[in-house]
Amino acid sequence: MSALKSLELLLTQGAISRREFVARVSALGLMAAVSPALLAGEARAAKPKKGGRMRIGSTGGSTS
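Above: the chain sequence. Below: its structure as tokens.
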């Protein structure tokens, strides 16, 4: 049985209050939203390349 279904059952049986039900369901939702971010692999940067051009845009500059 899923955690949500077991919480619904506890609520309908009167074992927990509505306030406790909402708190537990909110915690489940937060856990579901945060867990993929914690389990993601580490990011790796691309290797730098030699050569190329560096273009910078600035305000108030002139072409002369």
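The chain has a mean pLDDT of 82.
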